Amino acid sequence: MATKRQNSPPYDQNNRYKRRLLRTLKVTLDYPLRFQPKFRQYIWGGRRLGTELGKPIDAEGVFAESWEVVDHGDDQSVVANGPLAGKTLGELVRRHGEQLFGSHQATEQFPLLFKFLDANTDLSIQVHPDDAQAALLDPPDLGKTEAWVIMDAEPGARMFVGLKANVDRDTLRQAIEQNQLIDHMHIIEPKAGDCVFIRAQTVHALGKGLLVAEIQQSSNTTYRLFDWNRTDAAGNSRPLHIQQSLETIDFAQGPVLLQTPIAVAPSVERLVECDKFVLDRLCLTEAGASGGDDRFHILSVLNGAVTVEHPAGEFELGKGETMLLPAASSAVTLVPRCPSTLLDMYLP
């Protein structure tokens, strides 16, 4: 006669644990990840994220930003494809950091944020802290060094990038008090394809009429110096942060100039290389490649369309679409369906 086993865990509890363990062991990041975009409706936004980039924005309202890859507190990219669909980028960082980061040491959050911006009106004149300054905030944050690639610029569109030479703290404070800050800003009228590198502690703003791709540190700390004296529909002004800004600005930096692309391989230009990220531009008329080098890559199409060939299958990527290749992913072949321009972003 069989005897009942004693002291064994309840069947359901024991098997649920085993199933979770097996799922964890079987998960691999060896495939390109697509994410659901997260939209931001700020006062300066427009409609071009939908009309030009094909984003599924609402039928009404203004949409300023589409966050394509983000892991910052409650702001999370959600995987849209494959066996990890429904998982957040933060979950991947915590559970599969080695596969995601490869040769780079895994961190508590994904270090980069990539987004598109539609500047239908001028953005506020602003500045972001560096890592040391942001670490003192409650809660702590990363600093924000960023780079912009201009996708489209309407005639006369401007960027405000750095202070003019020899503008010191007292001069800037007085200019703010006299509503003359713009007179002390370095201004550029960009064209499509231009790139600007904005280090943390640099005063800057995008101007009206620009469609932009931006790679930055994963931070959302912004201090406003000037917001064009505008109000929202309810007549409210957005808050300014004059004292925090003056304490944050690097007054020794001066004007910011356009980046000079450097050819680093056939069809590949290096736009930015700094201690926070590397930004390459791929101009493809024939097949190119990315990944397979034990680091993650963020790939985004600025113009055209490509077929991404990977051992797991083929993936179509069109204008305004983005994917993340984990470090554990095999290399991909990028086959342009027409002359196509992509950004390739990764850690140095």
TrEMBL record:
Q: Which cofactors does the annotated protein need, by name?
A: Zn(2+)
Q: Which InterPro entries match?
A: Carb_Metab_Reg_Kinase/Isom, Man6P_isomerase_Firm_short, Mannose-6-P_Isomerase, MPI_cupin_dom, PMI_typeI_cat, RmlC-like_jellyroll, RmlC_Cupin_sf
Q: What residues does the Mannose-6-phosphate isomerase cupin domain cover?
A: 270-334
Work out whether the entry's keyword set contains Plastid: no
Matching Pfam families: MPI_cupin_dom, PMI_typeI_cat
Question: Per the UniProt entry, what is one GO biological process?
Answer: GDP-mannose biosynthetic process
> According to the lineage, what is the superkingdom?
Bacteria
Please give one Gene Ontology molecular function term for this protein: zinc ion binding
Name under which the protein is recorded: Phosphohexomutase
Source organism (scientific name): Blastopirellula marina DSM 3645
Classification of source organism: Bacteria, Pseudomonadati, Planctomycetota, Planctomycetia, Pirellulales
